[in-house]
Design a protein that fits this description.
single chain, about 280 residues, alpha/beta, 6-stranded mixed β-sheet, 5-stranded mixed β-sheet
Length: about 280
């Protein structure tokens, strides 16, 4: 897929005036400023046809739409995306994708209406049969180790510059089998962050054959599906999973490790390389 030169995009955060109050003091603190994450409408357009308006952090948008296109089933691989154009406008951002002719014709046959969401993942699906569905792995992935999870958790904060500024965004990271973080993306939406990560890895020519995904959010059905569609063998989340996420992870052969902390985590599906469920740093 051509890697177009990215245009100038809006900043991912900006300063606002705030007043911090103290519950133990009689008076408010002095006025100050705080960095807040920018949330902007992103209109995703295939050809000349608008497909979705997603609320997202306006950074790494080429990665976002590449990953979104794959996990939404618009494309089967990034080679079917022939070009991406990002056009900032006064009331939002338009991201236009040129698809391979055959893929664009197939896209025209689909109906979907996503509007004004922070990538909730399933908005606009009209029937249960239209829910996204990854394919089960033909063979189980090589189990990741507890030590690798611990190493990735220890390094994650350094990969979240926007979160350090704003304390309000999610992150998704791709980690190798030793737990080294090879790529990370941030966004106000947890699904967006994962789509950005997937798009970044694919656009750089990498696959998900060896490593795991680490996310700062809960592990929901959609996060499991997106990770599996990408081809990941394991998804690690800092928060808890949902019931359907566990069901889908088991059905897809995806290892699901949640409530991941510096000294422990819980394996909800699959297994780790060691026969323990406690994760050590």
């Amino acid at each position: 897929m051509p890697r177009n030169s990215p245009p100038a995009q809006p900043p991912a955060s900006h300063a606002v005036q705030v007043r911090t109050i103290s519950f133990s003091a009689a008076n408010d603190a002095a006025p100050a400023s705080a960095e807040v994450a920018v949330e902007a409408p992103v209109n995703i357009v295939y050809g000349t046809m608008p497909y979705a308006v997603m609320m997202a952090t306006p950074s790494d948008l080429e990665d976002f739409v590449a990953g979104f296109s794959l996990t939404e089933g618009i494309v089967r691989n990034v080679e079917e995306i022939r070009g991406i154009t990002v056009t900032p406008q006064q009331d939002g951002i338009v991201v236009s994708l040129a698809l391979a002719p055959g893929r664009f014709r197939e896209h025209l046959a689909r109906r979907r209406n996503l509007s004004g969401r922070t990538s909730c993942g399933l908005c606009g699906v009209e029937a249960l049969a239209d829910l996204p569905a990854a394919e089960a792995r033909a063979t189980m992935a090589t189990p990741i180790s507890a030590a690798a999870i611990g190493a990735a958790l220890g390094a994650l904060e350094r990969q979240q510059p926007l979160h350090r500024l704003t304390r309000s965004v999610h992150a998704a990271a791709w980690c190798d089998r030793d737990g080294a973080i090879l790529a990370a993306r941030e966004d106000v939406g947890r699904h967006n962050a994962l789509d950005k990560l997937i798009g970044a890895r694919l656009r750089a020519g990498h696959d998900a054959s060896d490593g795991f995904v680490l996310v700062t959010s809960r592990a929901s059905f959609e996060m499991v599906e997106k990770a599996a569609i990408f081809g990941a063998g394991a998804l690690v989340s800092i928060s808890a999973p949902t019931s359907l996420a566990i069901e889908r992870a088991n059905a897809l052969g995806l290892t699901l490790v949640c409530i991941a902390r510096a000294d422990s985590a819980t394996v909800f599906a699959g297994r780790l390389a060691e026969s323990v469920e406690s994760v050590a740093r």
